[in-house]
Structures are given as structure tokens and as C-alpha cells.
Amino acid sequence: MALQENLAKFRKQQEKCQSLLSSIATTPPNALSSVNLKPPAPAVKFSNDTERLRMINNIRKSSDSYQIKRVLDLLQETREALTPEQINEASYVDLNANKAVFESLKNNLKVKYDGRSFSYKAKHEVKSKDQLLALIQKYPKGMPVTELKDAYPSVMEDLQVLKAERKIWLLLNSDSQEDMVYSNDPRVNIRVDDDIKQLFRSIDLPSDMLDIEKDLAKHGMKPAINTAERRAAAQILSIPPNSKPKKKQREISKRTKLTNAHLPELFQNLSKH
Predict the structure, then answer these.
(1) pLDDT tens for each residue of 164-173
(2) Residue limits of the TFIIE beta domain (predicted)?
(3) The pTM is what?
């Protein structure tokens, strides 16, 4: 019985194989290829990050001062509080691995550290044009523009807008040779009577600016310019107007003064011929 069952199973398998072979034989070649053939698998792409890895390695092997500057530039540009992990992702400076850079940034005057993240700390905490104007108005004697340059990214543009609106003055300090910003006090814009204007215009002023500066200093006022220094510098850099270069007089030699009349002997032989 077992032998007959095995023979029956064998016959069924043969029948299945025959039917499969016959179906393959009757199938068109194009249809067969479209059914059985699969698109080739994409080639395995290896990481092409060599340049990035090389740059990261160079940054982390660079000096501590360079890495500190790199982080400072990042904080100043973003104006956001960044964790060491975020700083590492953006600048490739690993603060967790470089304790010297970490401690230097914590103690840096331009950095604020709250125990978790680092952020840029400007000299003056202003964030907008209105806050900027309010700050300038607190300094009636003016303040250097350099103290405001890092307040926020668009601070220099806002200074020009305030100047165009005649709310501030931007002037060059003659002593420090740096730009100063002054508030344009609206209380100064008052109406002056004509008799006061006439009285002011009738005052005789010295013709020499040096005398005016001496008079200002005498009354405890500091002149805005230093005429003596300017004249000294101009005298060094320029030639006095009356010192015209003298033309060199051509020296007349004795040879050029001689004429035929002074050399009669030259013509003695010619007259004989």
C-alpha cells in the first residue's frame, strides 16, 4: 500500500512539471521576459564624506584660540542659545571633548553661559531700533559707534535710518578718530526771536580759528577741532605756496663766448689759399 501511495504522489508531481513546461513553451518570449526579469538593484553607494571628515579633523586639531573664535562667530551670527551638542553640529568644535575651550567660553566677556547653553552677549542689550534710540538718548555726550556694532545684526542699518529721520547725529571725534553718535534732542528745536538772532550775529569773532579755540578753552569749553595740529600736519605734508623752485641758471663757458673775431689765427692759412 505504501509503495502504491508513493507512486501516485510521484505521478502527480510529474503531471505538475509537465503542465508547467507546456505553459512556458506556449508563452511569448517578450511576455516571459517582462514577467520573470526584475530591474537591477541599485549599486551600493559608499559614503563620499571624505572632505567633511578631513575638515572636522583639522578644526579639532587646530589651536584653542581658533576654535574659540569659530564658536564666537557662530553665536554672534545666530544670536541663539546653543548647547555644546548644537555647537558641535554647526561648527565642528567639540566642547565636551575640549575642556580648555569650554572653560574659556564660559569666562569670555562676550559669552553668556546659563549652565546648559551658550549665547552671545553684546555690550548693550538692545534688540530693535526703538531700544537703540532710547539707549543713545541716555548718553548726552555721545557714545562710540564701536560699542553698538555688535548689539544686533541690523544695528548699523538702523543707525542710518535714525540719522535720516534726524533723530541722531553721526559725527567723527577729532581726538579719538572714531565715529560718535549723539541724540538729536527735540527740545533744541525752539523758536528764537529776531532780536536775539541779531544780537548773536553782531558779536565780533576773531578772524583766526586759533584765537577762537583759546577763548573757548578759557571759558571751560573744549573745541571740536584742533587747528594747531591740523596746520602742523598740513605744513609737513604740503609745500609752502611762495617757495617756487628756482630755475638753474645755465653756466656760460668761455668756449661759447669765443667767436671768429677772437680766433684770427684759424683763418690765416685759409686766406693764403
Answers:
(1) 999 999 987 6
(2) 52-127
(3) 0.50
Look at strands 168-172 and 179-183 and give their pairing: antiparallel
Which cell numbers in the block locate residue 28?
A: 511569448
CATH topology of domain 52-120: Arc Repressor Mutant, subunit A (1.10.10)
Instruction: Identify the burial level of 98 via C-beta atoms within 10 angstroms of its C-beta, where 0-12 means exposed, 13-18 middle and 19 or more buried.
Output: middle
**CATH assignment of 129-188?**
1.10.10
- Angle subtended by helix axes 227-237 and 209-218, to nearest 10: 150
